[in-house]
Amino acid sequence: MAFVPTHEWQEVKEGQAIPPGLHVKMDMSGGGRWAKLMDEGGGGKNMQVMTVEQEDGKKEGSPQMDGHSVAELKQALKKIKAESTLDSKVSNHKTQEDVKKKFKSMDEIKEVLGQYEMKQESDVDVMKKLLGVLRTSGEESSIILALQDLEYYVHQIDNANDLVKIGGFPDVISLFNHTRAEVREEAIHLVGSAAQSNPPVQIKIIELGVLPKLLKILADEGESPAVRKKSLFAISSIVRHFPLAQQKLGEFGGIQVLMQLFQQDKTSSFRMKAIRLVDDLIMERLTTNQGTDKMKQYDKLPLFTKLQELDWCHLVVESLNSDSHEHREISMNAMNNLRPACPRGFDSKPAMKKLKQLKEEYKSLWNAEVADGDDDGYFKLLYNLVGEVTDNWS
Question: Which region is the signal sequence (predicted)?
Fold first, then answer.
């Protein structure tokens, strides 16, 4: 049956021939074709009628876009896609080539890293080079920098022990006599840092005769204060928790040197450092069990007897006259541990009078703290400490 077109859309049945000059559309959702007569004006600027060959050899109308059939447009679209894909592949290939030129491959990176690891120096190698600077350089600035770098390395116990093994300490110790104070200061600082809580280094330093050298520097009033402070630091590092070094300290007159610090400057921080050092040596003995091998080693330096002979207790009491609250605190803590060295106690009238004054002063300062909302401040601690010392020695 022939298709009879109208101005309304009608479905074209299967097998029906479509006359030329019709609007034709495809139903993309349900399938099938629809057709109607062309509107007046030719159906629009871009819509034309094309002749479509059917299976039976007949031709039927089919819409055209700008003179091209749908089949031609589809073919052109396929060509565009193919060219686009090719361009994309070419572009990607070019991009990959650019990336390869700009960046190294993973294998190349691993090779470079492997070479770096082979060239990386150990801490021992670095310390050997720094020692070479100390031995050969005539520039003071280079020597100072080398000492500072070595001091950084010996903070690690293994590095400090390696410095012993490679024979580095004699080179450092020789600089104690350098003409420039800053060089002496850095060399002494290095020795003190290496000796802290490190028995192998402490033993080596004692063997090299460092302790009397440091005591001589500490006792020299003409020496730079910075160098003397580093000397006291190094002495403290060498003798703490090392009975043999403490024995040598007594033999070389170390306690007398510490006393001289009081006589040279009563307001100096040297005095407080000396009190702290002696207090630490006392605490080591008070916390070590009697009869042990370690206690027997400590007994080789009759510390309490020496302190009593030198009237150390009186010097500590004098330190209470300091205007510094911190210095007073250090002195009172030392007084609490000094009973074995002070059989007469601190019950002298001047000592008790000073403690009474401090108690009144810190009571007033504590009340001021409470008024400011601080009921557990620093001055409360000092007030209680004064009371503790007074109770222990009255």
Answer: none
